[in-house]
Design a protein that fits this description.
Chain A: InterPro entries: ATP-dep_Glu-Cys_Ligase-2, DUF403. Chain A: This is Putative alpha-E superfamily protein. The complex is a heterodimer of chains A (about 325) and B (about 475). Chain A is mostly helical and about 325 residues long. Chain A has 2 domains: about 150 residues, no CATH class; about 160 residues, no CATH class. Chain A has 16 helices and no strands. The two termini of chain A are about 15 Å apart. With about 475 residues, chain B is α+β, with helices and mostly antiparallel strands. Chain B has a domain of about 280 residues. The chains are: A mainly alpha (about 325), B alpha+beta (about 475). At the A-B interface, helix 1, helix 5 and helix 6 of A face helix 2, helix 9, strand 7 and strand 9 of B.
Chain lengths: ~325, ~475
Amino acid sequence: MLGKTANGLFWMYRSLERAENTSRLVETGQRIALTRLDSSVGEWISIMQTAGVADGYLARHEEVTKESAIDWMLRARDNPSSVLSTISAARQNARLVRTALTHDVWEAMNRCYMQVRERLARKVGERDLPAAIDCIQQHTALVRGTTQGTMLRNDIFNFARIGTYLERADNISRILDVKYYVLLPSVNSVGSSIDNVQWETILRAVSARGGFRMVHGSQASPVDIARFLILDRRMPRSLRFSITKIRDNLTYLGSDYGVHHPSHAQADTLVRRFMSHDIDSIFEYGLHEYLQDILAALAALGHQIEIDYRFYE
Amino acid sequence: MSERQFFDEMWGRGGTLRQPYGRFQSWLEGEDIARLRAKQREAEEVFRLTGITFNVYGRAEAEERLIPFDIIPRIISGREWQRLSRGIEQRVRAINAFLYDIYHRQEIIRAGRIPEEAIARNDAFLPQMIGVKPPGGTYTHIVGIDLVRTGDDQFYVLEDNARTPSGVSYMLENRETMLQMFPELFSQNRVQPVQSYPTDLRRSLAACAPNGADTPTVAVLTPGIYNSAYFEHAFLADQMGVELVEGHDLRVVDGKVAMRTTQGYQPIDVLYRRVDDDFLDPLNFNPDSALGIPGIMDVYRAGRITIANAPGTGIADDKAIYSYMPDIVEFYTGEKAILENVPTWRCSEPDALAYVLDNLAELVVKEVHGSGGYGMLIGPAATRKDLAEFKAKLKARPGNYIAQPTLSLSTVPIFTRNGLAPRHVDLRPFVLVSPQGINITPGGLTRVAIKKGSLVVNSSQGGGTKDTWVLED
């Protein structure tokens, strides 16, 4: 496989994952706005922070409003992480690696791009927001589904998965880091209604409410939520799940090619260093510091994979 | 001009149904227009989803566009095709012999059959190719011969495409789409299949590999995703099961051209390149090219890679050389050309120029090195101002132009909102050449001028395409 193709696959799936995550964050933000009586403008800043797009927004906008925040996250062309930008990037990369994709995946990706572009051609009003979010989630899910259902389990698939899970791990770390203070076991805020909303935000933002209820019932404590999102082995968006998948897919590549690269060692270290503790020792170390370490390690791993598999000249 | 002057491939000149269209017409009579309309829309949807698009240069807002597809097939009888394919094969053989000769002893010039300056002063002639023998002796691995028809038995070669002919993906996708939408038509008519083209292409390219390559590695070289034909490049690489590479994926490693893979550099034996000569090698040609591979020409001259088509083949499809084609065919095959050329005036010759200037309103004038329908004048359709402007251009650089009579191109019906209506067409059959032989896919790409009365079929100028059937007689 060409190094360029591995690069294109990695970014195609990374962009798709980002589009989906961003749309879920918008959905969560809107949900909070609708279910709270006081102003939720501050919440939109924190939502944009979790998506990593707050600085860009503030550089181009005088004030924070719900409408402009939603528009920035869904449609803005000058926001490289907006849904429209990431779906366009995913499709551009799909064209680049067209020969590595099955016909079904290419068609699902092309359809996803055409439908989402049409949906987001104009500003999305409040009434149309649920349908727009639906459209994004359904079509990205279709690309994921055809990928699962039609692609060979070879190096192509592995690079696609590595892109997906690196983005996912990055995303959950950011969400947790922006909200880490509400997860800290502090005597004062436990049980207050504000925290309940905040906790729910976190779970919603990663589609984890149902899963969490199944495991913990309706009694939510911040420690349980943190443990669930960081260390749970079953939750497909937990940090442990994502990081383990990255390690596994790299291992498959290694045995496929018969070559062990520095990125393999890095991924092993990532799993061993961060996933071998219980939640108490993580809190003891400092949740924020822990998450910052992980974000840095993920960035370093991404960079090493580029080098090991010759993404660029 | 009235419609009756033109030969219609379905209805002839007098309105009698021509034989190859017999079964199709009986089917058509049983169809209702609403269903056909729905089918036409369905076809467009298939093309949009599959991403069968082309990029239009210089149009930022419409970076990808669909080529209009028409659901009415163009039908050619087996007998008609036999004659055409014999003519095509003869012409392609002559083109390859001509290229070998031109880059070696130049016998044809010594024999006085074409003037020396037609070659020496021609930009398409590549001095770097002098004395180079391409692997397998093949120059034009893939050729497209553009044909037009003016009557029952009257075909002309309009143009030879010996560099990097495009359009074959449309030939294949048009057939796929028709099979999907009108399966019954293929039960009723015995249509010769085209689907083996990608397999044939790969086999043909592999057969041209440099000596010593047992299972040659083939790759397609594209200028990139912004190129107008990118879809086709990806399509062919995908269908052949080979890598689609760009210049920056390649470099010369240990005397071979190699591609950067996830497991290091891997050598390539045959490069089906879809970039122009100029951009192939910044060390040997255009130094500013970011598309090419520095040093590939040195590897090529050492016989360690096959470039398809060979560099310098443009000298054979140059419009000034075109006018000598009947001589070229005769010189190398010893037979009269089976396919006729369109009579052509070379404006570089004073008598011809005088004639062209006097009769400009009846002629089609083309740039010698132009392609894609850009920069041409169609006399009968031109305004007085166009004609005056073109006269000035002709006088300033006569050697840059050739002129031909305006041909009465045949028509084939297309499906319009109000039912069938005749439109002008041409035909580009695709030919594969290797030491193992010449392979012509039955049919080819039919391009159709969608605008009523228009004679310009180029997709860059709003032309469309049709499925082309060659029947088993």
